[in-house]
Each structure stands twice: as C-alpha cells, then as structure tokens.
Write a structure and sequence with these properties.
Elements: H1 3-9, E1 12-18, H2 25-35, H3 57-61, H4 63-70, H5 74-90, E2 93-100, H6 110-128, E3 131-139, H7 144-156, E4 162-168, H8 180-188, E5 192-197, H9 202-210, E6 216-219, H10 227-236, E7 239-242, H11 244-249, H12 261-268, E8 272-275, H13 287-298, H14 302-315, H15 320-333
Parallel strand pairs: 1-2, 2-3, 3-4, 4-5, 5-6, 6-7, 7-8
Helix pairs in contact: 1-13, 2-4, 5-6, 7-8, 14-15
Bound molecules: zinc ion.
C-alpha cells in the first residue's frame, strides 16, 4: 500500500475544520437562490471557491461572508452540518471537533443555530457513525465585550455537544490579549480553549497559553521561529492543529510553494502535530487530500500518517472513556502496513 493509498484508507480525527468553510459550493448557491441573497460577482458553484476567479486572496476569503449570509434557517444549519460530516465520514473521519462561528450568521440567535447544527450532527452520527463536538469561535476582529457576550451565550445555552471556545479571523486585528476576560469566563465554566495563530509573532502563542489558558494552538507555524517557545510547547505536549493545503494557499505556513517545510520542521522538532483540512471545499481539498499532499511533499510513510491520527485522539476533548473507545476504533480500523 502506497502512502497515498494508506492516507485514503486510514482512520482520521478532525480537530481543525470550520463549519462555515465546509459548505459545498452547490449548497451555497442553492441556499442563496432560495433566500434571495446575491452571490458577489454572480459566481456559480463552479467559480465560487476558485481563488483565480477573485481579485486577490483577501477578496477570496470574503466568500466566507456569503456562506454566512445564506445559512440562516435551522434547516440550513442542519443540512450543512450533516453534509460535511457525512462527507468526512466517507474519508475515514471518526470524530470531529468543529468550529462554528455564530457571528458569521448575523441576526440568527445562537440557540437557533445550535438547534439546527445539533440536529445535523446527531443525524450524521446515526447515519455515518461519525461523532462531532462543537467549538464556538470568537471573531477576534470584534470587541472584547462581544467576546465576553458570546461566551455568556454559549454558557447559557450549553449542551453536551459544546466542548469549548476558539478564536479566529485576522490575527493582526485581534491580538490574543484582547480576549483575556472572555477566555477566563469560559475557563471558569469548564469550557475547553483553543485559538488560531497563523500570522502573529511566536509571543502570541505564549500569550494564548499563559493568558488565555489555551490547551491547543490552531496552525501555530511560527512556533518554530523561536527555540524557547518550541521547547516549551514540546515539553508541555501542546497540540498544534495544522492544515497543509489552506495554509499553503494562504501563505501562513511559509513559502506557499507546496513544500510544507514548516509543518515538516514542527514534526522534526517533536511537537504534537495533527493534520486537518480547515475549510475543505473553499480550498479545493478534503480530509484525505491534505494527508496525501503532505505525505508526498515530506516523504511521510504510513507510520507518520497514523501517528498524526493518534496525536489527534490524545489531543481531543473527549472524556477518558470516550477517548479510550476512539483509540480502540482507530487501532481496529488502521490498515496493515
Ligand atoms: Zn482555521
């Protein structure tokens, strides 16, 4: 079995995928028509996620706003959640901890969003055997008060499916220290904590760990530019949720030349690296492809590929009993190599 074949067949655990970025283009276009929402540039399902059909990367990333605007009814949330989870299950994803961004769906109360998403993830678990937990992401471009307000909403309407909070959108607009209070509130309520860091200095990683109490770092590629931060994260076993394809397109992880050298350096440094696909249809990828591309670029064989999955099992926010069950499923479903 080649590494590519192994990557397709192996069990996976998904710790870095955004619901808003995981909606199929055809679904976006269909929902836009149904709700009378214009699609910028009159883009079709074929061109919606084509980066070359946009003026630049910044304009391309605004496609997120369109997706946020067309997913508005409870049935829409149910549908897009179900579709992405069933698709992931087809790629061997056994468990996903998925980011949801309530602020992307302006005017739709969080409990309404949560009800639809919950219906979708329960149906996907029933039909495809994939489990899903939710991480509610604070938009760091918003105010500290908005962050606190979102956490209060999350706590008020909390269910067993909601395990933690995250922090995303443009890092330059929202340094982590802006959200100390929101994260402290989440911590007191027993919510787990993670945050994106892809373009900021390595000190942002330290701030996220020390001031926000983050237990994982999403992306975090610049960790390898600071030996002290690297050593600390290695020694503390801090998990990094890396996303090869989207980060290469977005140039977060380095050159954008397809070598994925920074992720390679993180692996070589002994950091706890996990692999996922971020916003899969937006970046023309899927849960298998990110592993295949990384394996081809770095020369990884099945032993390293399945190590990413085992690292993700241990980094997941399941309780000990659920984690043991997931570990056993991964072992049972790992192809011989
Ligand atoms: Zn992300």
């Amino acid at each position: 079995m080649t590494p590519g074949e192994f990557a397709a067949a192996m069990p996976k655990v998904s710790l870095h995928c955004h619901l808003t970025g995981a909606v199929a283009a055809a679904t976006v276009v269909e929902l836009a028509a149904r709700h009378g929402v214009p699609v910028p540039g009159d883009r079709t399902a074929e061109t919606l996620y084509d980066v070359d059909a946009h003026a630049d990367l910044a304009e391309f990333l605004r496609v997120y706003d369109t997706v946020g605007a067309v997913v508005r009814e409870p049935a829409d949330f149910e549908r897009v959640t179900y579709e992405t989870l069933v698709l992931a299950a087809g790629h061997g994803v056994l468990h996903r901890e998925m980011f949801v961004s309530p602020g992307s769906h302006a005017g739709v109360p969080w409990p309404v969003q949560l009800a639809g998403i919950t219906a979708g993830l329960e149906a996907a678990e029933r039909d495809a055997g994939i489990t899903c937990r939710l991480i509610v992401a604070i938009d760091r471009e918003g105010s500290p008060a908005a962050g606190v307000e979102l956490v209060e909403q999350v706590i008020e309407h909390r269910t067993d499916h909601v395990v933690g909070i995250g922090l995303d959108y443009a890092e330059v607009s929202g340094p982590p220290e802006k959200f100390v209070e929101a994260f402290a509130r989440a911590r007191r309520a027993g919510l787990r904590r993670t945050g994106h860091s892809e373009s900021g200095p390595p000190s942002n990683i330290t701030t996220m760990l020390d001031a926000l109490g983050c237990e994982r770092i999403d992306h975090g590629y610049h960790v390898v530019t600071d030996a002290g931060v690297t050593a600390r994260c290695r020694d503390d076993g801090i998990p990094f949720t890396c996303t090869p394809i989207s980060s290469d397109v977005g140039r977060y992880s380095g050159s954008g030349d397809g070598t994925h050298a920074v992720i390679g350096a993180m692996v070589d440094a002994g950091l706890a690296v996990t692999i996922d696909s971020d916003d899969p249809p937006m970046f023309g990828t899927d849960p298998t492809n990110d592993f295949q591309v990384l394996a081809a670029a770095r020369g990884y064989g099945p032993d390293q590929l399945i190590r990413f999955t085992h690292t993700a099992v241990e980094a997941s926010w399941l309780d000990d009993t659920e984690k043991a069950a997931l570990r056993a499923r991964v072992t049972a479903l790992t192809p011989e190599f």
